[in-house]
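Sample intake sheet
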Amino acid sequence: MNVVVLSAREKSDITSLMHPEDHEIALNNLSPTEATPLLMVIINALCGLIDSKLFGG
């Protein structure tokens, strides 16, 4: 299973748990107010890709 980590912090403990085949999308140097809308766009795009892969597009 591939794992995608969305991170809005520069120093995150989760990265030490990642495997080489995992992916991280990091939004470093952004305040929570700036990062939240971008994370929502990224999540929406990832859901669209998953939907397309599962059900065709």
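Comment: The mean pLDDT is 89. Residues 4-55 form one domain.
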